[in-house]
Write a structure and sequence with these properties.
The protein is an all-alpha fold. Helices cover 52% and strands 0% of the residues. The N and C termini lie far apart (34 Å).
């Protein structure tokens, strides 16, 4: 079952995902999940 395209990652979840990607001790699986979450984050408005 795939996720609907209109769902996005919240700012709080995106922040946590960013910290996970920057962490040198995070596992490869954790970083993969964090990267996936960030790809679903909407672009910043200018």
């Amino acid at each position: 079952m795939s996720k609907p395209k209109n769902e996005t990652t919240s700012a709080r979840a995106a922040s946590a995902a960013s910290r996970t990607l920057k962490s040198p001790t995070a596992s490869k699986d954790a970083k993969t999940a964090a990267g996936s979450a960030l790809t679903q984050k909407p672009d910043r408005k200018k």
